[in-house]
UniProtKB/TrEMBL annotation, chains A, B:
Stated family: Belongs to the NADH dehydrogenase family.
SUPFAM superfamilies in UniProt: FAD/NAD(P)-binding domain (SSF51905)
Stored InterPro entries: FAD/NAD-bd_sf (IPR036188), FAD/NAD-binding_dom (IPR023753), NDH-2 (IPR045024), NDH2-like_C (IPR054585)
Keyword Oxidoreductase: yes
Listed name of the protein: NADH:ubiquinone reductase (non-electrogenic)
Gene3D superfamilies linked to this entry: 3.50.50.100
Catalytic activity: a quinone + NADH + H(+) = a quinol + NAD(+)
Domain External alternative NADH-ubiquinone oxidoreductase-like C-terminal: 370-423
The keyword Ion transport belongs to this UniProt entry's keyword annotation: no
Enzyme Commission numbers on file: 1.6.5.9
Organism whose genome encodes this protein: Rhizobium bangladeshense
Length: 439, 439
């Protein structure tokens, strides 16, 4: 006869009268990464009787979709980032550690970080993505990507410094180089960056200079494929391209970058563009998760997982978000977008809860709510499956959606006020050149 | 007979019929530095018919009195800094250049910057102050000071990282070292920093950790002299010290630092304090202005100027603010505080205007409105000459005064909302560890 006794701490004690085996320990769940996926998993387990450890190399959760607004001096970093501890401070079953993962030992079920070894019963790997330069890693120094706050403030500094140098120099050719901006990559990030830089040049800072006319700045968007926003229906891609050109962005399609250095870029078709500011929005690859786990990955380094989000032979491990490669019900790859990561995190939490209760749960089922991208300050394109929007209504929807998903009441209120002011007054107080660009 | 003709541009044309000499050129005024002094001079000349050039190595004006709040994660950089171009964008007679000064040639009346040579008829030198380490410049790497935004975010990162490391490590002695903070220097900056770190540890982040108790953090304020806030009346200095101790700060008076490295500090009396976070608030020295001008300076490098704020033999040059050494009407040195810099800038502008009109103006007359310093989140000391306040009323006055002097409506509104929220909710959203501390 087996008796189950509830201990005051909430853990279950299983007593086998015959063998006198006493097993009393809460399950240990370790979550690597506090992005959309990792946090969704942590919150999904907030009522669970587990020992939860969330590990991230940074102390904040970053709302990445708005990162381009920090890069173009519309928002400040603190308005799109929230300390992880603050988000989880009321969840008593979680410990947060600011550590960098060095490796994972699947056999001993241990995570090795810089200063610690942490054992787990269940592991959720949600370590996200990094920039990819298609083998030309030396381009990273010249052309920063946009994945972290440090990236965003670096890009902001380069954009603003370019206008400052243009104002200061005497040589006309140099002035032109400083007033030329190149964005490589026509996905959502590249489109949003290009549109925002143009808006900055033509509306925000246009009266701030005496020797140059900022609105004469040249913004070039270079895309190797045939359309911008390739994940959108063709009609919306075309609308986006036309709108970018109306804003003043030069869109070069079917052009790959062959050279990228301090002078500018060269394109496959032979064209050269002299620029002091080249930004990389052309490729991402997964974190090192596949290497740590020693499991198969795709060309971008994403871990192949099954419909339960487990890698082969280890159903105590879940790999989610941008670092996972999941095939959805429709046979297509689940995209590396925030809502997908969130849903995967929620699935991992539900799966773990079920396992703890001795139940089973169904496979992961991605619900695609659609796709949005802004272009400048008044327009966007939105593909919501049955509804397609473009222009101002899409832009409004984009803002409401993103505002809603921001974590924390305070941030929503502050960002709302900021956006309202920015929209009405063109007042970009976040236009600071800081840190290593301080001369 | 002399005829004076007003040209449409506003400049005066003097025609001497006999000699046919035509002199038609607006006076060139160059201002080095866009801090309180430089900006006050620029704004004082906003209606003047001059060619004004403002040069600063950064693109923003910094409200330094609130810098310690960025360092202790209460405010974000963008809330206390405003782009110089934005501040001056409506002033049509001014050109802003983001350049670093390399030298000044008094004979040819030229300023040499990294990329330009700029001639002047009148020069206002307002280049401020830097940290001084009393000959131990190697301490700068271990113990950052607080003069720039980069300083503030560096200090913020070190403070927050110390708590993160304390949470992660296993060794008890190391944990203690991470939970010990040392502030060197008992002036206003040191007092404000020490009080704010204590508040952060005991109120703001106290619930965010599981393995450590942040309120057990040790904050030590070390002062070589016999009192904190030496520029205040003795009674207020004593009140400040007592209030710091009530907050939990350990105040060591009459103790100079003899060693400062990654392990902590050693004091002259023999005491050693192990700490991973030592902050320097103990000394400032002037910018290189005296060297550029080749004129006499005091021990801190400040340029000796007369009651008109001119260095010897050059009444077309004005040196103002923290980089100047001025004796006031009362025979005492005018202090290196924001209101003094502002008044000196206004005087320089008036003096230049008078000279252009062929008038004379009286000497600089410093009006000392008093002295304020906060201690933690609810108290301050205020010496307003006839009135002395301490406690909550002083704190309220401090906030109102600083809020009022912030430049720009938007910043005032945002900072007010921020402070209100921080005070009510203990919600410090600016608690980010960014940039080179990202691991």
């Amino acid at each position: 006869m087996r008796a189950t006794i509830q201990e005051p701490s909430g853990s279950s004690l299983s007593v086998e009268p015959d063998t006198r085996q006493v097993v009393a320990r809460r399950a240990k769940v370790v979550i690597l990464g506090a992005g959309f996926g990792g946090l969704a998993a942590a919150r999904g387990l907030r009522h669970a009787d587990v020992e939860l450890t969330v590990i991230d190399r940074r102390n904040y959760h970053l709302f990445q979709p708005l990162l381009y607004q920090v890069a173009t001096a519309v928002l400040s970093p603190a308005q799109i980032a929230m300390p992880i501890r603050r988000i989880l401070s009321r969840q008593s079953n979680v410990t947060v550690l600011m550590e960098r993962v060095e490796g994972i030992d699947k056999e001993s079920r241990t995570v090795q970080t810089t200063n610690r070894r942490i054992t787990y019963d269940y592991l959720v790997v949600a370590t996200g993505a990094r920039h990819a330069y298609f083998g030309k890693d030396e381009w990273a120094e010249t052309a920063p990507g946009l994945k972290t706050i440090a990236d965003a403030t670096e890009i902001r500094a380069r954009i603003l410094s370019a206008f400052e140098r243009a104002e200061a120099v005497e040589d006309e050719a140099e002035r032109q180089r400083f007033l030329t901006f190149v964005v490589v990559g026509g996905g959502a990030t590249g489109v949003e960056l290009a549109g925002a830089i143009t808006e900055l040049a033509r509306r925000v800072i246009v009266r701030d200079f005496r020797r140059i006319d900022p609105s004469s700045a040249r913004v070039v968007l270079v895309e190797a494929g045939n359309v911008v926003l390739p994940t959108m229906p063709p009609k919306l891609s075309e609308e986006a391209r036309r709108h970018l050109e109306t804003l003043g962005v030069e869109v070069f399609l079917g052009e790959a970058v062959t050279r990228c250095d301090a002078e500018g870029v060269a394109l496959a078709g032979g064209r050269q563009i002299r620029s002091s500011c080249v930004l990389w929005a052309a490729g991402v690859m997964a974190s090192r998760a596949a290497k740590w786990l020693g499991v198969p990955a795709d060309r971008a380094g994403r871990v192949h997982v099954d419909r339960n989000l487990n890698p082969p032979d280890h159903n105590e491990i879940f790999v989610i978000g941008d670092t996972a490669s999941v095939i959805g019900k429709d046979g297509r790859l689940v995209p590396g977008v925030a809502p997908a990561a969130k849903q995967m995190g929620e699935h991992a939490a539900r799966a773990i809860l079920s396992r703890l209760d001795g139940r089973t749960t169904g496979p992961f089922d991605y619900r695609d709510y659609g796709n949005l991208a802004t272009i400048g300050r008044k327009a966007a394109v939105a593909d919501l499956r049955r509804i397609r929007l473009s222009g101002f209504s899409a832009w409004l929807l984009w803002n409401i959606t993103h505002l809603w998903f921001l974590i924390g009441f305070r941030n929503r209120a502050v960002v709302f006020v900021d956006w309202a002011l920015a929209y009405v007054c063109c007042d970009h107080a976040a236009r600071l050149i800081t840190d290593r660009h301080e001369r």
